[in-house]
Every structure is written in structure tokens, then in C-alpha cells.
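Standup notes
- DV: blocked on the single-chain target, sequence here:
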Amino acid sequence: MTTLNELPQVHDLRSALALLSQFEDELIATDEPVDPMAELSGVYRYVGAHGTVMRPTRVGPAMMFNRIKGYDDMRVLIGLLASRKRVAHLLGSTPDRLAQLLKESVSHPIAPIEIPREQAACQEVVHLASDPDFDILKLLPAPTNTPDDAGPYFTLGMCYAADPETGEHDVTIHRLCVQGKDEISMYFVPGRHLDTFRMKAEAAGQALPISISIGVDPAIEIGACFEPPTTPLGFDELSVAGALRNRPVELT
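- DV (later): unblocked, structure below
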């Protein structure tokens, strides 16, 4: 039996999956090939919610699809944050303590730090939109959850941008719809911080540079859910993730 002290320390997605694998029925995987067009989400509907999304919601494990049709070396993870119990495991807490843990993380933030590009795992493989054969969907499988969806979506993109006037940063989660080989559209809910940055940039006749990160430490995804008035404009929610892990998020 694995003791608490022997559990992997989570600091990224790989270590998060290693942790969940120590618990029964929290993470399962399949090597059966699956189509990202509606089939992937259709399979998980029966694994994660037992076939229904009607209340009361039923809880199932997170699931890794190891073989995606049309891709040689890509996997898709679904349902990672779909239960309080699982989130508690990932944050080293218990379900009844989560609210207090999150409150404390906002009260004692740890700011992100910048590391050299050569030390950044996310820079080990680089593709440029200017490459002759560049195509987003040839690189990454974006599932289409239902036949009625507008297109294939990245549903947990961590979008990071800076206020063009103050330089303060913010991170929010957006669903991102792939529109073409080098174009992605995103919906800004009115009032979201990145939308405020966008409006400021457009008013100045500028584009708003952003980064999109997929497959990050779950603490970042949880921390990014905070909005006003808990975290006002200019409050970098990456510092919430830093507090949850007691170590700064690394940027490059």
C-alpha cells in the first residue's frame, strides 16, 4: 500500500497522472483507437457520467485515450477535474477542505517566475505557423464533442495575456475553436479580464499577444477559475496556483 509520504509530488500534468494512478478508479486508460469527431466524448459519457448528464450527476474516473485516429503519437485526457474527490487528491487536500484551501491560496499568493527558454520543457519542440506544412489539426487532436458543435475545440486552453496599459498579467480558461490550419477563435464572456485587455488593445489599434497552454498542472486550471471580485483586474491567478503548490509557476 502506498503511504501519503510516498505519493508523487504534483507540479505538472505528468506528476498529476502519476498521483491519480495510485488511487483506485480515479484514472483509467484505453488503447482502443477512437475518433476525435464525437466518438471520444461519446465513449467518455458512459465512463465518466454513466451515460447521463442529468442531475444528480454521476461521477466516473478520468480517462486517457492513448490512440487517436489520424495521429501517431498523441493522447487525449478527459475528465481530470470532474469530481471534488479527484481535485482534492490533486491538491493534497480533502473535499471538505477545498474551499478553505482556495481561499487561503488567494490570500497568500506566490508570484510566477521566469526561467530561461533553454530550460523550458514547452520549448523542446517548436512548430512555426510559417512552416510550409503547418496545420494545427495535424499537430494536435482537438475533439468535436457532438455532431452539432461549431467545430473541433480545445476545451481547456489556459490563455495568458498582459494589460497593454499597465503590463499586469492574467490567465483565464477559454474554449478555443479551430477554424483553419493557423486560425483559432475564442469566445470572451463579457467582464472577463482578457476581454478587458482585448478592448484596450483594439482601442489603441493594436493586436493583443497571448499564449495558450494545454496540459498544465491542474493547480493552474483551478487557480484560473477565480474572477472578480475575489481576484480584481491585474491579479495574476498564476500566483494562486503558486500558493496551492507552495512553489512559483515557471514561465518563459
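- Follow-up: The chain has eight helices and nine strands.
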